[in-house]
Each structure stands twice: as structure tokens, then as C-alpha cells.
Design goal:
Layout (H helix, E strand, L loop, with lengths): L17 H16 L7 H16 L6 H22 L2 H17 L10 H19 L27 H9 L3 H12 L4 H8 L3 H19 L10 H10 L1
Helix pairs in contact: 2-4, 3-4, 3-5, 4-5, 5-8, 6-9, 7-9, 8-9
């Protein structure tokens, strides 16, 4: 169950205390790391088939591109799950992203952030699908999403179930901005390019998302002294 809304208001607070921001970011990264450990075998098989098709034409893929694509698969799947909240749709979305990236690898500029380029492809594919989809089956009760994360300690005040439920209540544009910045570690500039908006817009979305998430979870700076997980995270970052 979510904690009561600590500060329901129509405005947006300028900023959360840095300790709360750091904790939310750490917890978000930990939560997404839990679903970035398993990659469906089908993704690897698809890449092998794409390589074989190139080899049959007497061509090869740049090793850096292939290795980068393989390394990005966990993050791509985590981002897809955050957008779709459905495992099957997320895997289809990642597969579509692999195909599009492979077909357009000549458009990727070596030396730039490959993950950011792949996130852009995945995001565009998702919204293209959304526009075409007249009706969709959703995870109404959150049963699948509830299994995405496993809380490390049921005694923690802020558990993963609360975090997932809070994220689900954020507007989509705020949620994706917060995940890309907070969980995936992209810069504001990179996320702005991915979403096709100004850097200031992304900063505003992340700020609003953090404030809303903190409100939904009932967190204030005073709570940090009694939270074992927060103290652990803060001491590790010192």
C-alpha cells in the first residue's frame, strides 16, 4: 500500500532535498537492476541470424556495434517493460528495436552514445504502436508488474512494491524521463534528444516526477534518519 500523499498541491516544489533525490535515484537503479539480469534467448538468436544473413552476402557487422547492441539489451528490456507494463509486448518491442537498429546501423555515429540511440528507436516504435493500437490488453491489476521486482528486505520502509505502484501513477512523459535519467543514467541532454524536447522540459519532468513520487511515498528528509536502506545507500556514496 502506498503511504498517504504527503503534500497534495497543484504546484510543483522547486526541488527535493538532495538526500531524498539521492535515495530515490539509488532505489530506482536497484529496482531496475533486478530486471536487467535476464535476457530472453530469442534476442541473442535473432542477432545471430542477422549476422548469418550478412555473412551469406559476404558482409560483416562492426564488432563494436554488435557488442554494444548486446550490452544494451538488458537496459532496452527494462525500458520497454516500464513503457508497456507487459512482458510479451516489451519483448516484441525490443525485438523490433533490434531489427530497426540493425537495418539502420549506418546511421549511427561512432563515438556517440549507442544506448541513447537505441532508446530513441525503441521509444519511437512504442509510440508508433500506440497510435496504431485501437484496443490493447493491459495489466489492469498490476499482477505482472508486481513480479518485476523483488524487495531485498521486507523490513525496509520503502519497499519495491511501493516504488512500482508510485511509478505507475506518474504521467508517462514524467515516468520515462525519470527512468532514463534516474535508472539508466543518461544525461538531461541525451534524454531531451531521445524525447525530442528541450533540456529544460526534461529537467522539469524529472523534477515533477521526483516530487510526485516522494509525495506518493510520503517521504521527507526527516524520514531518512530512520531508514536503514537509505543510510546504507548514503554511506556507500560518501
Amino acid at each position: 500500500m502506498l503511504y498517504p500523499n504527503a503534500a497534495a498541491s497543484t504546484g510543483v516544489k522547486p526541488s527535493l532535498p538532495s538526500t531524498v533525490q539521492q535515495h530515490l535515484g539509488q532505489h530506482l537503479r536497484d529496482a531496475y537492476a533486478a530486471i536487467e539480469t535476464t535476457i530472453p534467448e530469442g534476442f541473442l538468436t535473432l542477432i545471430e541470424r542477422l549476422e548469418a544473413a550478412l555473412a551469406a552476402q559476404g558482409r560483416t557487422v562492426e564488432p563494436e556495434f554488435r557488442d554494444g547492441l548486446l550490452s544494451a539489451l538488458p537496459s532496452l528490456r527494462a525500458f520497454a517493460l516500464s513503457l508497456t507494463n507487459n512482458a510479451a509486448r516489451a519483448d516484441d518491442l525490443v525485438q523490433d528495436t533490434i531489427l530497426r537498429a540493425w537495418q539502420n546501423q549506418h546511421r549511427f555515429q561512432p563515438g556517440t552514445n549507442l544506448n541513447a540511440w537505441l532508446f530513441t528507436i525503441l521509444r519511437n516504435a512504442f509510440y508508433s504502436e500506440q497510435r496504431k493500437r485501437m484496443r490493447e490488453v493491459q495489466d489492469e491489476d498490476g499482477s505482472y508488474a508486481a513480479r518485476l521486482f523483488t524487495a531485498p528486505d521486507q523490513g525496509h520502509r520503502l519497499d519495491v512494491q511501493d516504488l512500482r505502484a508510485g511509478l505507475a501513477k506518474l504521467p508517462p512523459d514524467q515516468r520515462e524521463a525519470l527512468i532514463l535519467v534516474g535508472a539508466e543514467g543518461l544525461s538531461y541532454e541525451e534524454v531531451a534528444r531521445i524525447c525530442g524536447v528541450a533540456i529544460g522540459t526534461i529537467k522539469s519532468r524529472v523534477n515533477r516526477a521526483r516530487n510526485r513520487l516522494a509525495d506518493l511515498l510520503g517521504y521527507t528528509e526527516d524520514d531518512l534518519s530512520s531508514d536503514r536502506m537509505i543510510q546504507s545507500a548514503m554511506s556507500e556514496g560518501a
